[in-house]
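Researcher: Please translate sequence to structure tokens.
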Amino acid sequence: MSTPRRFLTILLLLSFSLSSCGSPSVPEPASMTPASPQPLPSPAFETGIYPNLFKDYLGKSDEEIQAKIDSAFNQLFYGDDSTERVYYPVGADMAYISDIANEDVRSEGMSYGMMIAVQLNKKEEFDRLWKWAKTYMYQTDGGYKGYFAWHCKMDGTQLDANPASDGEIWFITALFFADARWGSSNGIYNYRAEAQAILDTALHTEGRGELATDLFDPETKQVVFVPQLGRNSQFTDPSYHMPHYYELWARWADKDNDFWAEAAQVSRDYLKTAVHPQTGLAPNYSEFNGSPVSDRYNGSFRYDAFRVGANVGVDYVWFAPGEWHREQSNRLLSFFASQGMDEYKAEYLLDGTPDAGHRSTGLMATNAVAALAADRVIGEPFVQALWDLDVPRGQYRYYDGLLMMLALLQVSGNFRIYEPGTAPAGQIFPTPKPEVTGKFAPPTGRALLLVGQDVESVDAYFNATVTAPGGVAANLDLQLNGMDELNDLAGKYPNSALSVRVDWNDTLTDVQVDTLLDALTSYNRPVFLHLRHGPDDASDAYVSAWKKVGERKQAKGSTNVALVWESASCEEINFAEFYPGDEVVNWIGVNYECADAFIQQFARERLKPVMITASPQEGWEEWFAPFLQFVTDNNDVVRAVIYINDVQMNEEILKRWKDETKSSFWLKASPKLFSELGFVK
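Model: Translation complete:
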């Protein structure tokens, strides 16, 4: 829907207004020699040929271009959790794209992520994003039934139920392309049927919620800002006008084909009225007649409007609908060039008056896409600027980063039309196989590093490594002996999870369980509660007592507590007899000494994350290196390690340990750790 910076405070708007008083006059756009008429390019829809401006203008090799694209994708999807990535896997088969600055998930970003995945032939990432969207964003009932909530918390809780039109538009088109690339399967992976279902909701009231309207205004056939009863469905957003997508729907939809064809032409005609005749700037929002909305902020060129230039460029490549696209792209890019290629700002009044002091990677990226429709002499500097950009990091990497990723594909000729029905006959790609998941479990490729098992040991570790671990571990009994030590650890390490091991007997009372859970719930952070058995315990009584803990935890709503089923012995016993069931077990715990056999024979079958407790021995090559290798080799199930710090590392081992554990594989203490583990305070 909107970007993080769409809704600025009144104070900030006032500061922009005051800062402009007495400023120099706005530079005139660079004079633009009227372009001589030239033949329109052959549409890529017909030829399958997509221009590659990095190659044609800058002389970059195919290898250089692919490396650039791969690097951007890997950073945004699999880079550092806190500074680089926006794609976060969840459990066995889901993932979300996060708007980092606003700490939410938007249909805009989810649909962009799906489009990026399908263009790059990344089926697993596509399916994960789509399942998350269908699980948490899709409205199965209520006032917006059939649409997608425009933003949610990262745990899937909906923040606003109403949809944003651009999310639906990108979802539909990405799903059509997925059907073409991979073929459709069953359920939500019947991509073509899912695309058609959204199209049906967009134009038909049957089965739709009572608060929703058509996605397109029935009278003007223009996309509405929000398909919601009231004012929000009575104006539009120029960046939501994507006639190149509507053209495809007109060809591929099961019904309403004439409407979609007309909507494509209406959008092309509308855009001519919405952009400023001298600067080429579009407003964030406009009335259906093209005039900007009266709101000064959204009636000006802001973050939504960045995308208009890119949409015009892609429409020109795909369908070559007319000369206006070239004229508009020349006009827009000439204006920005007049401001200075290294100086133009992120926000303007439509007449070209700067209205912000900062720049934006997202705008630089979309301007390069506009160059697809511009004359080379005007467009080439913008293509070079995109090539020279670094992929954004930090707080605002979401919007800028996704626009840049899309731009790299679009400008390189890798943003293509994939026609449904063209996948090899009978070809069905499997959905991602089930993956190990669990409460507070890191995703594949990460492991939580905990240290124990008393204050003295944890403090010694911190003093040696100068790094707070991802969790601290201590022991309790049912009389809560050890609480002082646990409180001390919790206070010293506020950004670390807690691991609590409790030795107990089989005759467990509700009072004992409630007292323990109340104490652990009070910490308001992830707590791993280990309840272990020994070889002499009676299995029936043990399982019954274990289930009691699970029942009391659920009844009391102790949502910050994850239950770890653990064997206190490596002796061969029938583990299954002591296992209380998947419905109550969140994690499986095991000592490193018997971890290999235990994982092979028991843990993998249950798709539960494993937490290994390890007491080090002397020697890097003898113990430390094999241990670290074992954890990474078995990361499909091993998602946490409790390192018992009872052996003082010598200088060489300490250095190597610090080098090994500083990688992003290991989750350590940070202000964002708890949210990364899926804990919401």
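Researcher: Any highlights?
Model: The domain at 447-676 is CATH 3.20.20.80 (TIM Barrel).
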